[in-house]
Amino acid sequence: MRNVSINLLDDTPRTVVAIGTDYSYGYLLPRHTHRRAQLLYGATGVMQVSTHDGNWVVPPQRAVWIPPGVAHEVLMLGVSTRSVYIEPGAVDLGECCQVISVSPLMRHLLMEAVELPLTYDLAGRDGVLIDLLLHELVRSAPLPLHIPLPSDGRLLDLCQTFLHQPNVHQSPQQWADQLHISLRTFNRLFRQQTGLSFSQWRQRACVVLALARLAAGEAVTRIALDFGYDSPAAFSTMFRRILGQAPSVWLEASKRGKSKNAFDPG
């Protein structure tokens, strides 16, 4: 099934409804919810998913799990998607969104699922294919591509400002001063609100934001300088520490559509 809204198919008497959709570059899906859970896979391009809890960047050949009822918006950057909408309770990957790795088998299953009849034969080959897809989904590994956002309004404003203009030289003391609290209080508040230390969050944010720009064809040097790194080498070192690959290696693998890289288990 291609380029059809799930709203028209939600009452289909099947556990899984698979839909493929092509989006123009820069297309924004406004905030919405689904009754079913959604596995949103980008065969091409990059997706930026936003919810109340944070932001996720989904590189090419990866997917994002969106639980049922979670309000989200998605910015599509040259994306051709394969989505499977799953009845609540059929698969449980938690109550929060997460970016996951996609095995070669799972990728082929997603591509094939979109071509199945809407009311596929549960007892035949198509039913087995869907069951195998759900098994592969359960064993998928999460990827550290989430930028958690705090609920505290003052801290949220600082985080959102950083995301619009990241600067690796910003320090926790600077943020504490802006909030008129002590450094110790700030560090405790930040970890309570995000689950990460300030340094961890700052590095994670830079990596996740860089992924979208790398996929859009921007040079590592340009990104490194924009983010305030002293050199491309310093940025690459941080990138490798977080994701296990240099930016150039990640970009080359993504261009080839490879899945067997440092993101994927085994």
Order of helices and strands: EEEEEEEHHEHHHHHHH
Radius of gyration: 19 Å
Biggest sheet overview: 8 strands, antiparallel
End-to-end distance:
32 Å
CATH architectural type of the largest domain: Sandwich
CATH level 1 name of the largest domain: Mainly Beta
Question: What features would you describe in this structure?
Answer:
It contains nine helices and eight strands. It has 266 residues and is an alpha+beta fold. It folds into two domains: 133 residues, Jelly Rolls (Sandwich); 108 residues, Arc Repressor Mutant, subunit A (Orthogonal Bundle), CATH 1.10.10.60. Strands 1, 2, 3, 4, 5, 6, 7 and 8 form an eight-stranded antiparallel beta sheet that branches. The radius of gyration is 19 Å and the shape is globular. The C terminus is likely disordered.
